[in-house]
Design a protein that fits this description.
alpha+beta, 5 helices, globular
């Protein structure tokens, strides 16, 4: 986790439409987190850099899109990301530190703040990767996915956009963090024949 949003990859420094910037500008308080800036946006949420006001700790704060808050299915899927990451407990799975619903009714996840680059960006700028680096990234990704599988979890959305490479501690190369377990399924889901991803999604 780091404290400098400028060290994030180009993919995570997305410029948002004015209405989103106006809704949560720097200094806005979401529960116990104070917005610093915007990091990225996905199908179900927007991610901001934020500071825990009591611990003075920088986090990546993911907020569910307002238009999805009324959908119980979407809210359930959103919080599934936190439960799944906590259940797996592998160093290659992004660490979710906190979750809840703000007083304004906005579901949020607080995740470790990562420095580095999204694999998708790396591939866009450097093709092909040296074989040794590609194998190292693949093996670390498989380690995280194997831990998820052992915990009864299938990610279901593994792609370069969801693989984040951080500077490793104590060694050269990359350290893989797998992001976004929002579309995952568990063995329990399968046995109950439940589905959080509709046909065509």
């Amino acid at each position: 986790m780091g404290n400098d949003p400028q060290n994030l990859s180009p993919k995570t420094r997305v410029v948002f439409p004015g209405d989103l910037l106006k809704e949560f500008p720097p200094g806005t308080r979401i529960d116990r987190y104070e917005i610093i800036g915007t990091l990225g946006s996905g199908g179900c949420g927007v991610v901001y850099s934020a500071k825990h006001v009591h611990l003075d700790q920088t986090v990546a704060l993911k907020l569910l899109h307002r238009e999805l808050i009324g959908s119980e299915d979407r809210v359930q899927r959103f919080f599934r990301e936190a439960r799944t990451a906590a259940a797996v407990g592998n160093s290659h799975i992004v660490h979710v530190m906190d979750c809840g619903i703000s007083t304004e009714g906005i579901p949020f996840l607080a995740m470790e703040f990562l420095k580095g680059v999204v694999l998708e960006d790396l591939l866009d700028g450097e093709k092909p990767l040296p074989i040794e680096r590609a194998v190292d990234i693949a093996l670390q990704t498989l380690d995280g996915l194997s831990a998820a599988s052992a915990a009864g979890v299938v990610h279901r959305d593994v792609k370069p956009e969801n693989i984040f490479l951080t500077p490793p501690r104590g060694r050269s190369g990359d350290f893989v963090k797998i992001l976004d377990f929002g579309a995952s399924k568990t063995v329990a889901d399968t046995s109950q024949q439940s589905s959080l991803t509709g046909r065509g999604s």
